[in-house]
Specification:
Helices cover 71% and strands 0% of the residues. It is mostly helical and 274 residues long. It has one domain (8-23, 60-267): Orthogonal Bundle (MetI-like fold), CATH 1.10.3720.10. It is elongated, with a radius of gyration of 22 Å.
């Protein structure tokens, strides 16, 4: 039997992770609200065959509530990380390709945003935007672009000094044309990997600011809210309220992280054909 090469194995693992994450997101979207709603006749039940993750102080099924919360986190993280990555791509290319005053202004903005503690910046933006769904998306989207901007700017600066770029400039192409036609294709791989690696940060920070009360409203199933409520009851022995939601959140974040590693292996020319 022919041994599976590294590329095929990586593709299969990445596809499996994508399938699991997509299944969680879709399950939350199609889930009936009654499945994670209150049931006062089934309050504070430990994990069992009827309730895999037990129930909380209102009788809400924690398995369904956790899946719904993770689905919300994945969808919010995807939207916010996608917007943030696009901002980083545009600013990184513009900064390095145009240079001069534009580069200095963008570099100053990057340093400014990175100089503020991340959670503080998230809470400030979310609070200014009125909290809730809008506040979470804006908070995550407007605070995660600086690191990726720096990476893309560094890549563009390297490509900018290559001979084919200098030849295009001497042939009369504008800076915009050079950036779009010759520089952009060389930073797409960094952009894709950076985008995927933004997901776990976005999901964790969404859960973090929601846990602190600056995110989604308390009537929305979210991991941050679930963990915040669980702290009030864990001393009564209801350990399952923290263990399962927290464990699955960590698992989802780790899957996104591994997905980024696998995509990087597939895109990297040094390892793509192994």
């Amino acid at each position: 039997m022919k041994k599976m090469n590294r590329r095929t194995k990586t593709v299969m693992l990445a596809a499996a992770i994508l399938l699991i994450l997509a299944a969680i997101a879709i399950a939350g979207l199609v889930m009936n609200a009654d499945s994670y709603g209150p049931d006062y006749g089934a309050k504070k039940l430990a994990p069992s065959a009827a309730h895999l993750f037990g129930t909380d102080y209102l009788g809400r099924d924690m398995f369904c509530r956790t899946i719904k919360g993770l689905s919300n986190s994945i969808l919010l993280g995807t939207a916010a990380a996608g917007f943030s990555a696009c901002v980083a791509l545009i600013l990184g290319i513009v900064s390095a390709a145009i240079g001069g005053t534009v580069d200095k202004v963008i570099s100053y903005l990057v340093d400014l945003f990175m100089g503020i503690p991340h959670m503080v910046l998230l809470m400030l933006i979310s609070f200014a935007a009125g909290k809730g769904l809008k506040g979470v998306i804006l908070g995550v989207a407007l605070s995660h672009w600086p690191n990726l901007t720096r990476v893309i700017r560094g890549e563009v600066l390297q490509v900018k000094n290559m001979q084919f770029v200098k030849a295009a400039q001497k042939l009369g192409k504008t800076k915009t044309q050079v950036a779009y036609q010759h520089i952009f294709p060389h930073v797409v791989s960094q952009f894709i990997v950076g985008l995927i690696l933004l997901f776990p940060h976005a999901i964790l920070h969404e859960a973090g600011i929601t846990f602190l009360g600056f995110g989604l409203s308390v009537d929305t199933p979210a991991i941050g809210i679930i963990l915040s409520e669980a702290l009030k009851h864990i001393s009564t022995g209801m350990w399952w309220l923290v263990l399962f939601p927290g464990g699955l959140l960590v698992l989802v974040v780790m899957m996104f992280d591994k997905l980024g590693d696998y995509i990087r292996l597939l895109i990297d020319p040094a390892s793509a054909q192994e």
